[in-house]
Every structure is written in C-alpha cells, then in structure tokens.
C-alpha cells in the first residue's frame, strides 16, 4: 500500500471527517505532497486533521496542510527523528570518522534541493565513496531515491530543521555547521560558474542558432539538457548559500570574479533554464548583502551589480539580440563567452513588466518654459499629467546636460537609467514616488514624480515660520531620518541631502534626488566634489573636499545634522556667511570647523548636542543612521527639555513658536 492509498483509507474510514473529505477531495493530494513519502508523517497529519477538524475548516487546503505539519513538527516527528538517529554510543561503534559524518550531514542540510550522488560530489567536493558509506549507516534518516533521476534525500524535508535546532535535537550527536557549509557551497557554486567555459562552449553549439524557434519544442529541451545538474544548481542557488554562510576572502574573491567576468553568461543560463525572472531579485539582494559587508573598494563592485541589472533591463527591449551579444558591443569585461541566445518572448514580457519604467511622454504637458526650481544637479519643471478625465500636477526632473561631455552621453544615459531603475523600486512613505519617464525636456530621459505643493523644506520653513510648532518640526525630522534609514537599508546613499532635496506635502517630508550626485561626480572628476554649485557645500561632509573623496553613509549622517540645524533654528548652516562668499564655507570645512550655533531659543542644548553628534569630525565618530534615529526619537519623547536645563519647559507644543 502506498501513501496515497493509506491516507485515502484513513480519511474514508473516519465518520467524523468523511463529509469533509467528500466535499474536499483535493485534500488527499495536498497531504500526499506534504508527507513526501513518509508514512509516519502522513499518519501524524491524518490524526491531527481528525482531532482538530472543526477549528481548521475555514483554512484553504495548503494552509491546512501547513498547519497540520506545524503540529507534527512539535510532536510526532521530533520523537520519530530522535528515535531514528543512533545514540552517541552507537555512532562510536561505527567504523566512520565523526568528521566525515558531520561533513555529509552538514552538506545535505544546507542543500536547497535534493541532488544525485554525482552532483553532490561535484558541488561539495566530498568523495562519492564517503557519501555512500555514511548513507549505508544512516538509512533510517537518509537514502537514495529510486528511479531514473535518483537523488539523495532525508527522511523528510523537515529533518534539516530538526537537525540544526538545538532546542529540538537535544542529543546533538551529529554536529552541523550551517554557516560554514553554506560558505563552502557558495564558493563551489561560484567556482563552477567562473570555470564553466568548456561546458559553456558545448552549450553554445545549440545557442548559436539564430532562429526564433530556439526556445521551443525538442531543440529547447536539448539546450536545457546541455546544462549539467551541478551547473544548474549553481545558477539557481549560489546567492542563497553566499548570503547564509560565513563571509570569507575566498567567497568574496569568487563573487567579484563572477560579477566581472561571468555574470552575463549566468543570465544566459537562466534564460535557457526558463528562470530569468529570478535574476533581478538575486542581484538586488546581492547588492544589499555586499554593501552591508563594508568591504574595501565596495562601490566598484556595487557598480558592476548595477550594470548587470541594466544589461538585464536593456535585454528586454531588443527582440533579436542576446544579453551577451548586445552588452559585448559596449563593454567586453563582463563576460568571456560568444553566445547568441535570444531572450524568449515569455521572459521578455515578464521582465518588461518588472523592469521598464512607464513612458509618460504622450501625457505630460509642460506648464511653462522656465524651470521652477532645482537642486545641485537637476532642474525641475512643473507640468500636468492629462489622460482622459485625469488632470493632475506633476514635477519633471531634468538632469542638466552641461555636466557631461558629448562623447559620454551614452554612458550618462545609462547611469540615469540606473538611477531610474532603483528609484522605481523604492517604496516608502518618506521617499518621493516615481511615476515614470518623459522626453522632450533635454537630451537625457526626464523623471516624472508628484508635484509637492508645499515646496521644499527651506521654503516650507520660511513660509510657516510663525505657525510651525515644535511637534511639527520634530515630525519633519523623523520623516527625514526614516527616509534616509530606508535608503541605507536598500544599499543606496543619498549623497546630496539638503533642504532643497526634501519636499513637503501636507506636513509630510519626502526625500528626492538621491543618487544623482554619486553618478554625476564620475563624469566630472574629483574637482566636482569641491564645487559650490547651488550652495551644496554648506550641507556637505568635510571629507568630500579632501583628496580622493568618497561618498559614504556617514556623509548622509553629517548632512542630516545640517538639516536638523535648519529645522530647529530656521537658519541654514554657516548662516553667518553670505552666498557671495561661498568659498569661505569651504575654508571653514577644510579647517575642521562645523557651522556655528545660531542664537535661537528653540535650539536647546539637547538638540544642539544631537546635531554635534551627527557632525563627528571623522566618519568613524558619527553614528549610523539607525542610531541617530533612535536618539532623535528619545529626545522628541522628552519635550520638557529637562536634560537641557528646562529651556523648552517654557514652550508649549500646541502654540505657534516665535523665533528671536
């Protein structure tokens, strides 16, 4: 009797559940799937279903099966697994090295899907003889499945969770090291991808076909079969292992090599496997993971990730050019293959839905010919989005064309598209929403976003100086720091934070223009960092005016301190220096002096200390944005100002504040 027959007899044999089974016959296939061939698991689920049917009738079938399995985990299965595993004395009697046992079990535990013996040997470098010897002595919990595509698998997929959970597996006679073996498999996967040229050239014999039928029928199956199972596994799971493992120099080295030489080949593999849709998520998560490691020269590697993402986006727009072939026309360092794979129509439709920004050119109408504002690197025009009965105000951001020389227009356009690519994926209440792109406002793509009727933070503070309460000022700063914290969590540095780039709508602050300064500086050299365009020097961290400047998260924290000064005092940084003598601001910064404290009674000692906290002379002295956020909230929750000598005690939050 197989599991399906067994469960069918159990469900039909219970009068209590017979009616439910008759109206939900699909429950049988769902339970069979979750049992994974394990009779003990199937029996435990059937028992739990009968005992708790009334409370679970409202769940759909998958939810029901998951709930049943959860109950099984904490009862029958834990007992089953503990009983199936040999004791420490029994393991000592085996003619096996404990390290060999731990190596095999640790590898099987971290695998993302079952593999054959040959694939495990290839991906983990564990000799097949060692794997077989361990399996023969632990057949109660691990075995090789029967059939043409036999794989090695545990008694149940939940066994891996049990094995690594010290609160469940109390004996711990089989030690597992999940971080270490995830790192090992990550390195192995990346080495396979980095050294797969022989296999790749073999596959390219199929991929060289330039007919649209490449991805259909028998020919497509032949191409998929040309990718060995270990290489397929590496394509799908290299980052899952990398992000779950220990960070080692070898792993980082292989990762950087993969990005610089084999990433486009990897995209070709994914297309052949029909998995191109997972590439963007993997690369975005890889970008965040790498940035969090705070590694040396991290931003050149982040640039590589972003360029691969752009190649992925561009590939969706070209019907007859492969990812590799098209990108090879502009740069040859990212891949060493000569494939000519066509992106399939299905994948292209899916990728276009995910990646391509909305082109609003037909619906955008300029309000007037002159720009209405702008920041350090872009002009802002007011316009209207008109589509049928919809007529709403929008802002159009146009990157100034004089920043870049003509010979590099194509590369600049690419960088702008990169910023658009990341902007449209951001989703936070304190980040200015991205609506789409439009043309006709300059030589580059222009970005469309909502019109923020209250203007930027500087204008808002001026217009509401008499009526703006302390509580509303605190809320504005909380909005700003929340927006920065979200950007940093996405591995994005604003790089040009000042009051002009913080927009206000109905008392809520939103950040804009993040990232523009970072890529524009690439086309203007280090001297750009020392420029005073738009008065940005007042808000900029001093280290950006020395040799070899580098924009970091600490720069955003310094600029946030400047924004806090403006919010609580109504004065911009270095308000004692007029714009006509902007060079004096640079001299003050380069001599290590921070902006002086304005004499304003709302700017109490406690807030001034917080601003100085953000202005640490060295980057290492500044808090990260999460710590700054925590301290700001703590200060705002104590508006009495007891820590600052009771100065705020005389102010009432519900009344308008008059500046001295």
Automatic annotation (TrEMBL):
InterPro entries documented for this protein: Kinase-like_dom_sf, Prot_kinase_dom, Protein_kinase_ATP_BS, Ser-Thr/Tyr_kinase_cat_dom, Ser/Thr_Kinases-Pseudokinases
Keyword entries, A-Z: ATP-binding, Kinase, Nucleotide-binding, Transferase
All residue ranges annotated as the Protein kinase domain in the record: 366-632
Pfam families per UniProt: PK_Tyr_Ser-Thr
A molecular function (GO) term: ATP binding
Superkingdom field: Eukaryota
Keyword Zinc tagged: no
Sequence positions that bind ATP: 397
Keyword presence, DNA damage: no
PROSITE patterns: PROTEIN_KINASE_ATP, PROTEIN_KINASE_DOM
PANTHER family (UniProt xref): SERINE/THREONINE-PROTEIN KINASE TNNI3K-RELATED (PTHR44329)
Protein name: Kinase-like domain-containing protein
Top-level taxonomy: Eukaryota, Fungi, Dikarya, Basidiomycota, Agaricomycotina
